[in-house]
């Protein structure tokens, strides 16, 4: 059974309806994305606003807890975009846009752990070029190499 | 720890010394003075062991039999009992001491003076004086005394125990008569001192009868009226302060804002918009549990919302 818009609107929670009475949904009203002044007609009720005449900051009309409550209720009904911009992030958005600590992203580790891949790489390269390295230090090794070449077993 | 306690705790208190330390301290104190100036320093009794003369059984004016020392076998009169040292001072029992001039009192004429000697209770025994019909005086010496019962002694104006000779409890040794104090020129008579001129009053018996109060106080006093005249009320209340120009502007602005804040119901367009968004979202939901949850959420009442809707309908 699919709902019509009129049927769906009747399911709007009283808390959200009450909020929309005071602060109409987003496309019908514009709200500042952050702090503003109390005279600003677009001031956001979720942010603190400044009184320019006396220089005082007024607390947000809706506290962090109440704003989170509104967002989460709205999210369940798919109305989260209609609310004014939020001072905090939620759910996947909160994870995606998280400001990760440097240590979490790039673990420092111990010195030997940091240097281990390069060391292994160098070792592997040295083993591969072992003959050349010995030859450079001891020219007579050339004969030994030749002997090895002669003694090399083949299937035929 | 308070300063009072700390002061006591770290203070030298020779009275608390025991055993060898006690002996050492006594010698140290006496060591500085010459033997002729030696002080009378028997051990002090600890405070909890001290007793009054009536508790011990020997008081001022008692007769005692001396059992030790030079005056052994003689009868003497007690001048005083010292509870601090548990010693008595008795008559005719003095020692000659040399007194430095710095310690002379008024009337002293010689360096050598007779000082009353303190006797420990172990070297005296209580004696009772008895006179027979012929006028012959005899003494009863009690090896030990026991104190029993109580009676009110009019001479001392207090309750005292009775003294008996131990194992001979028919023999009572009465307390001596207290030293008479002669009335001076300014002294108050006993009868005057004991006269009761004032009695303690309680709430149960108020000093003034209740019926007499209206005669003492004015029941029609203007200060007892509960209602104020217009003039009194005017004098008691401060007048309204006139507003400044800025205040008037501020109040007008505030009123304007209050009217601007008035709520308006959501328009049909907005309702349609919200409804379509919700319908899109809910129609995609397959979980029955989630749908039931949303159903429950939509039924949660909100008192503020109900109040607002009632206002809007009016």
Automatic annotation (TrEMBL), chain A:
GO terms for molecular function: structural constituent of ribosome. GO terms for cellular component: mitochondrial large ribosomal subunit. Pfam families: Mitoc_mL59. Transmembrane segments: none annotated. Residues 15-136 form the Large ribosomal subunit protein mL59 domain. Keywords: Ribonucleoprotein, Ribosomal protein. The keyword Repeat does not apply. InterPro entries: Ribosomal_mL59, Ribosomal_mL59_dom. This is Mitochondrial ribosomal protein MRPL25.
UniProtKB/TrEMBL annotation, chain B:
SUPFAM superfamilies: Translation proteins SH3-like domain (SSF50104). InterPro entries: Rib_uL2_dom2 (IPR014722), Translation_prot_SH3-like_sf (IPR008991). It comes from the Eukaryota. This is KOW domain-containing protein. It comes from Spathaspora passalidarum (strain NRRL Y-27907 / 11-Y1). The lineage of its organism: Eukaryota, Fungi, Dikarya, Ascomycota, Saccharomycotina.
């Amino acid at each position: 059974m699919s709902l019509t818009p009129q049927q769906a609107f009747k399911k709007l929670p009283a808390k959200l309806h009450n909020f929309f009475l005071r602060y109409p949904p987003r496309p019908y009203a514009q709200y500042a994305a952050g702090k503003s002044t109390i005279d600003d007609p677009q001031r956001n009720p979720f942010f603190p606003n400044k009184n320019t005449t006396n220089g005082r900051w007024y607390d947000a009309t809706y506290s962090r807890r109440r704003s989170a409550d509104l967002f989460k209720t709205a999210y369940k009904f798919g109305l989260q975009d209609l609310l004014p911009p939020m001072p905090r992030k939620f759910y996947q958005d909160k994870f995606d846009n998280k400001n990760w600590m440097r240590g979490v992203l790039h673990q420092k580790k111990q010195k030997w752990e940091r240097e281990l891949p390069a060391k292994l790489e160098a070792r592997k390269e040295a083993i591969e070029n072992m003959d050349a390295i010995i030859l450079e230090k001891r020219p007579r090794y050339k004969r030994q190499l030749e002997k090895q070449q002669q003694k090399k077993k083949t299937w035929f | 720890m308070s300063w009072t306690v700390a002061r006591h705790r770290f203070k030298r208190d020779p009275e608390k010394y025991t055993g060898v330390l006690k002996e050492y301290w006594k010698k140290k104190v006496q060591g500085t003075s010459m033997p002729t100036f030696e002080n009378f320093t028997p051990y002090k009794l600890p405070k909890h062991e001290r007793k009054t003369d009536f508790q011990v059984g020997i008081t001022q004016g008692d007769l005692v039999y001396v059992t030790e020392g030079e005056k052994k076998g003689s009868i003497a009169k007690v001048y005083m009992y010292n509870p601090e040292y548990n010693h008595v001072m008795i008559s005719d029992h003095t020692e000659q001491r040399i007194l430095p001039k710095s310690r002379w009192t008024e009337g002293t004429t010689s360096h050598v003076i007779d000082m009353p000697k303190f006797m420990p209770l172990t070297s005296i025994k209580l004696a009772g004086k008895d006179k027979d019909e012929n006028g012959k005086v005899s003494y009863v010496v009690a090896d030990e005394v026991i104190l029993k019962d109580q009676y009110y002694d009019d001479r001392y104006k207090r309750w005292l125990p009775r003294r008996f000779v131990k194992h001979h409890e028919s023999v009572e040794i009465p307390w001596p008569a207290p030293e008479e104090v002669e009335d001076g020129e300014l002294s108050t008579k006993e009868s005057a001192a004991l006269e009761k001129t004032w009695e303690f009053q309680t709430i149960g018996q108020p000093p003034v009868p209740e019926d007499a109060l209206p005669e003492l106080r004015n029941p029609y006093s203007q200060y007892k009226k509960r209602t104020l005249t217009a003039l009194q009320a005017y004098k008691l209340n401060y007048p309204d302060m006139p507003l400044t120009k800025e205040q008037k502007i501020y109040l007008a602005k505030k009123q304007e804002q209050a009217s601007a804040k008035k709520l308006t119901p959501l328009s049909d367009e907005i309702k349609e918009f919200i409804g379509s968004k919700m319908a899109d979202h809910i129609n995609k939901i397959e979980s029955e549990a989630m749908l039931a949850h949303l159903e429950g959420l939509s039924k949660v009442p909100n008192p503020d919302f109900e109040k607002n809707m009632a206002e809007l309908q009016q």
